[in-house]
Amino acid sequence: MLRINNIRVPLDFDFSQLENLCLKKLKISSGNLISVRLAKKSVDARKKSDVHFIISLDIEVKNEEKVMNTVKNCTKTEKFVYKPEKISGNFSRPVVVGFGSAGMFSALVLAMSGACPLVLERGSDVDTRRKAVENFRSGGGLNPECNVQFGEGGAGTFSDGKLTTGIKDKRIDWILEKFVEFGAPEEILYLAKAHIGTDNLLTVVKNIRNEILRLGGEVIFNAKFCDFRTKNNHISEIIYSDGVNLHTVKTDNVILASGHSARDVFELLNKKNVSLSAKNFSVGVRIEHPRIDIDRDMYGIFAGHKALKSADYKLAVHLPNGHTLYTFCMCPGGEVIASSSEENRLVVNGMSRFARNAENSNSALLVGISPEDYGTDDVLAGMYFQRKIEEKAFIAGGGDYSAPITLVGDFLEGKLSGKLGKIVPSYRPAVKFARPEEYLPDFVCETLRMGIIEMGRKIKSFNNPEAVLTGVETRSSSPVRVNRDEKFQSLSIKGLFPCGEGAGYAGGIMSAGVDGMRCAESVIDNLKGV
């Protein structure tokens, strides 16, 4: 198979005519073309007067070598086929703690191998979870064990469902294919900036769970991992709570994919002297603009074209104070969502549905935090630093999970007018005007002020005085890494596999899924005695 890259087509191109485009590009007759498939599709909007698509095609042709020698940007490619090794015989059933992206794909791979994994998820199934999240957003009480952070699908379920990643791994294509198999739109296989959307993820994660069950796995919801035991420095048992009783499971292999909001897990590991290290993370706010303004800024005269989806952006500015401000998890046509998982602490995140057609677009504005910033050698200091900020944001919002907001114009001028402009905040249940200085460190606020001005030089409406800043975002990445060896096992305990974002080894749905697969492969090796 061949891949032809860097093919330019107009926004009005009819994608049912790929075969004709291919014949013209290759200068061959239809009898020599066996198949053609859209492999990649991205928007080139660098020139606002000339927005177009850049595509790649996977083709099968006769006389491959001749085509390769005559067509530019043409390389050989092979479809990645992934099949976990099958195992049999007597072995201790592996346990997967957590059912986010890392846990789901580790459990799926283990189930496909015949390992019949047991999955423990502290939150509820996705249908129950959806109701709990909506109840909280409507002004009901927070359920600390079932919310935007905890439950089937993990934090990614209530997000934009972005499938972009900075890692290079052959497993990525397989994960995308599985998402489509379990209900995601087929376009995620070729879009350069693909996303599933929360509305689709609710179905996808349920279908993945059902496939794990079909293959002999087991998933227990409302099962909170709370302790473990070892024998000869090897994991031997784990203990979980169903909210009433404690249950013990004997096992030799545990994939710990509990997510970085499971702070009690970090405290347990630290108490048991499991090797941990502090790592950098980020904190900041969400910024909201009208979606139509961002579309116009990014697409120019082509804004609103039927072939274009809601525009996204990715910005980073290095500032004179030595800090960097960057955007993260941009949600075109999305909303800012209440994401608390601990009582009396306030957290926000971004979420989009597949259509991305809400009035506002939002993204996180984040400033990096390093161990030097919290001035202690305590390996959990970053986690406590996050908690302190979340507590201050909760108080600044009025102590009822209302989010503290301010307008960009007021923030840049160092004042608080307490009056909205034309942009209506999307956060629910409610918002309250408060200065970011009430909950964020001074250097973070300084970086936000300087950075927003600089970003306004890159995107015209970015520093719109009426844009809304909503606090606080603290959960972009884990402040702790659970140290592991080259076989993905804990440096302290054999048979314990720290995995995914919570363990400090991933940053998003795709990289977490890949890490889950790699950990599962290592568990399979253990079960085979390799």
Folded structure, characterized:
By secondary structure, this protein is α+β, with helices and mostly antiparallel strands. It contains 12 helices and 23 strands. A hairpin with a 5-residue loop joins strand 14 and strand 15.
How are the SSEs placed, and which strands pair?
Elements: E1 2-9, H1 18-26, E2 33-44, E3 52-61, H2 64-70, E4 74-76, E5 95-97, H3 101-113, E6 118-121, H4 126-137, H5 171-181, H6 198-214, E7 218-221, E8 224-231, E9 234-241, E10 246-250, E11 254-256, H7 263-271, E12 276-278, E13 281-290, H8 291-299, E14 316-318, E15 324-331, E16 335-338, E17 348-351, E18 360-369, H9 381-396, E19 403-407, H10 408-413, E20 431-433, H11 442-456, E21 468-473, E22 480-482, E23 496-498, H12 509-528
Helix pairs in contact: 3-6, 3-12
Gist?
The chain has 530 residues and is an alpha+beta fold. The protein has twelve helices and 23 strands. Helix content is 27%, strand content 25%.
Strand fraction band?
15-25%
Which outline best applies?
Answer: globular
How many strand elements? 23
Strand order of the largest sheet: 14-15-18-13-21-19-20
Helix segment tally = 12
Structural class: alpha+beta
Oligomer: single chain
